[in-house]
Write a structure and sequence with these properties.
Pfam families: DAO. This is NAD(P)/FAD-dependent oxidoreductase. InterPro entries: FAD-dep_OxRdtase, FAD/NAD-bd_sf. Keywords: FAD, Flavoprotein, Oxidoreductase. With 377 residues, the chain is of the alpha/beta class. The chain folds into two domains: 164 residues, 3-Layer(bba) Sandwich (FAD/NAD(P)-binding domain); 158 residues, D-Amino Acid Oxidase, Chain A, domain 2. The protein is built from nine helices and 21 strands. A hairpin with a 5-residue loop joins strand 11 and strand 12.
């Protein structure tokens, strides 16, 4: 039976960042990915926004790791040639009754260390974005957009140069927790059983199922797994805005917002469509990423709250993503759950549960956090 020092399960942006962090610290690392390419699920199907960190409760992992990760990501992009742009973002109140919530976001951002937020009057916001309608807005100058594929390619390049290897089409079939580490069964065309000293479960949408597949892991510590689908629609023609535009957050997400890609194309989304929860113990199936064109029917009314000039028939289906959540539609939003030996008592195992937004922004900070946890154990 072969042995390896560390196995990272999942080659999304967070898994690749963790593999890079371990390999650069001299740890022999293998990345197992069930798909035929890296980053083909949550990491490839999102808004590609580099968040500033203003939405999350002070001292939460989301707040701390987003703010730290944002700074790290700026430097990483500059040194690795990853395309990105600090275009800025406006979060808007579209009625006076929303302004107290907007002020609360301003205070939350300041408490989280986002020092460059600015309150704008309706006139000041319109001066920056003439087609915007609002009663007030927050300007977040440090929010930006990024080429997520380019980021993952750079992370993988660093990891491989440090000695890590990526095994595609290699789903984890199961494993066992033993006194001396872990025995893992990897499926695919070249199935393999091997030992590992360290396991980082960065399986995203399937992280609870992966943890449950490890014989000896206490089932009471498994969070509920919820999937929330979000659809995006592109705007025909030129974007009316040079910045991202967000309404106030809603249950399950940040509202139907306008984002830009690096080519200047505008898109709207995501909405929130709660999918049936995965069934514990059932095989991991395929996800349906098709965009239902009829869901766009609800978009114009939401968009016209802040952009009255949206033309009829201007939206076309683009793509959909699915967010890994550990809180359901009736629950309060959950923090990242980075579950290590202090929580479950198993040496060498880190479970990354509920790593949704701002996971991309926080990826480098999450990786440093994981490496510090697992190597200190």
């Amino acid at each position: 039976m072969e042995s390896v020092a560390a196995v990272v399960i999942g080659a999304g942006v967070v898994g690749l960042a963790c593999a890079r962090a371990l390999a650069q610290r001299g740890v022999e690392t293998v990345i197992l990915e069930r798909n035929d390419a890296f980053g083909s699920e949550t990491s490839a199907r999102n808004s590609e926004v580099m968040h500033a960190g203003l939405y999350y409760p002070t001292a939460s992992l989301k707040a701390r790791l987003c703010v730290a990760g944002r700074r790290q990501l700026d430097e990483f992009c500059a040194t690795h040639g990853v395309r990105h742009r600090r275009c800025g973002k406006l979060i808007v109140a579209t009625a006076a009754v929303q302004e107290d919530r907007l002020r609360a976001l301003l205070l939350q951002g300041h408490a989280n260390g986002v020092a460059d937020l600015r309150w704008l009057s309706a006139a000041a916001a319109s001066a920056r974005e003439p087609q915007l309608r609002c009663t007030a807005a927050l300007l977040s100058p440090s929010t930006g957009i990024i080429d997520s594929h380019g980021l993952m390619l750079a992370l993988l390049g660093d990891a491989e140069r440090a000695g890590a290897s990526l095994a595609l089409r290699s789903p984890l079939r199961g494993g066992a927790i033993e006194n001396a580490g872990f025995v893992l069964d990897s499926g695919g065309a070249d199935s393999l059983r091997f030992r590992a000293n360290l396991v980082i479960n960065a399986a995203g949408l399937w992280a609870p199922e992966v943890a449950a597949s490890l014989a000896g892991f206490p089932s009471a510590l498994l969070p509920r797994n919820h999937h929330a689908k979000g659809s995006y629609y592109t705007l025909a023609g030129r974007s009316p805005f040079s910045r991202l535009v967000y309404p106030l957050p809603e249950t399950g997400g940040l509202g139907v917002h306008l984002t830009l890609d690096l080519g200047g194309q505008a898109r709207f989304g995501p909405d929130v469509e709660w999918l049936p929860d995965p069934i514990p113990g059932q095989p991991i199936g395929k996800l349906d990423y098709r965009v239902d064109a009829t869901r766009a029917d609800a978009f114009p009314a939401e968009i016209r709250r802040y952009w009255p000039g949206l033309p009829d028939g201007a939206l076309a289906p683009a793509y959909a993503g699915i967010r890994p959540k550990i809180a359901g539609p009736a629950d309060a939003a959950a923090d990242f759950l980075i579950q290590g030996p202090a929580q479950h008592g198993i040496r060498g195992l880190i479970n990354l549960f509920g790593i949704e937004s701002p996971g991309l922004t926080a990826s480098l900070a999450i990786a440093d956090y994981v490496a510090a946890e697992v190597l200190a154990d």
